[in-house]
Amino acid sequence: MLAGIDLTGTTAVVTGASGGLGAETARALASKGCAVTLAARDVAKAATVAGSIRDAHPDATVDVGALELTEPASVHAFVRQWRANHDALQMLVLNAGVMASPLTRTAEGFELHFAANHLGHFQLTMGSLDQLRAGAPARVVSVSSGGHVLSPVVFDDIHYVTREYDPWSAYGQSKTANVLFAVELDSRHKDEGIRAFAVHPGMIATDLSRHLTRESIEQIVARAEGNGEPYKAVDAGAATTVWAATAPELDGSGGVYLADCGIAPPIEEGSPGYAAHAVDPVAARQLWDVSINSVSEDDDEEHNKAHAGEQ
User: Fold this and answer.
1) From CA 302, how far away is CA 16, in angstroms rounded?
2) Closest CA to 100 of 43, 150, 155
3) Lowest-confidence segment of 162-166, 282-286, 289-293, 300-304 by average pLDDT
4) Residue 135 CB: number of other CB atoms within 10 A?
């Protein structure tokens, strides 16, 4: 995906970069000269990844930042520190996530999947808009999943206050939110040179599956392979994310769902593809409004403008 591409002089932030797809994405970008910040809740693990990248690529510029996406104060702190040390951002890769967790709520009362997979990334992106504008042409890559087909965003009860909790519908709802966010972000900011993409990386064995039993994993793999989607190695899984962040052939594109290093079709026309509820522009705008009202207030100008309806 990076053959012939020189990323010298560019910057990237990759969330969830302490292992799995995030670490591989960071390694690939840094190998081509991009200055990469590994954002992770486990700073020690991320530092180990950063060290391995430097060992393999001695000229690489890699740093580490603490980021707990379910804690607004942590997101604010990361954004402030990153903005203090960087003027421009070309690639923001929203990779971190949780899957099929038991019912868990954040301090704000938000369901964990929605908070970690969507709201924290929304807040991070809002706080990074000035740097993305300065880095334009810039790209935001929202790592979703084919699991988005499991549920639309249920706006009447996003956080399972009245409906029965199901870990897979919660995961699916958050992955739909990842796609809708890319659709609306691209619509709002493409004229400023900021393009957004949603990505389905495929079936990969990473720490994301830590809440699953062996039987559940075997069932998921069998179902995916039955649909013509084989298991991938981590580097193959990261390929579409890297392609989304860097591919010249995507210049001028945005707001689309990518899989297997291509623009995916609607799910009715093939697999993997996207469900109609994940690209609905009305739902995308509604999600934006819900998200603005959910992230905590601070001194961030972009958040305050969006909250006031100025964007």
Assistant:
1) 24
2) 150
3) 300-304
4) 22
Burial class (CB in 10 A: 0-12, 13-18, 19+), 307: middle
Residues annotated as catalytic (active site), given as ranges: 171
Burial of 57 (0-12, 13-18, 19+ CB in 10 A): middle
Q: Measured between alpha carbons, how far is 209 from 249 in angstroms, rounded to an integer?
A: 33
Spatial CA neighbour of 220 closest among 274, 275, 212, 149 = 212
Sorted by where each begins, the domain ranges of the chain are 11-307
Structure tokens at 192: 């400023």
pLDDT digits (tens, 9 = 90+) for 175-189: 999 999 999 999 999
Per-residue DSSP letter, 208: G
Kindly report the backbone phi and psi dihedral angles of residue 290, in degrees, each rounded to the nearest multiple of 5, phi listed first.
-60, -40
What percent of the chain has pLDDT above 70? 84
H helices within the chain, ranges in order? 20-31, 43-56, 72-85, 112-113, 120-135, 167-189, 214-226, 234-246, 281-294, 301-307
pLDDT for 127-166, tens place per residue? 999 999 999 999 999 999 999 999 999 999 999 999 999 9
Q: Which CATH superfamily is domain 11-307 in?
A: NAD(P)-binding Rossmann-like Domain (3.40.50.720)
pTM across the whole model: 0.90
CB neighbours (10 Å) of residue 10? 20
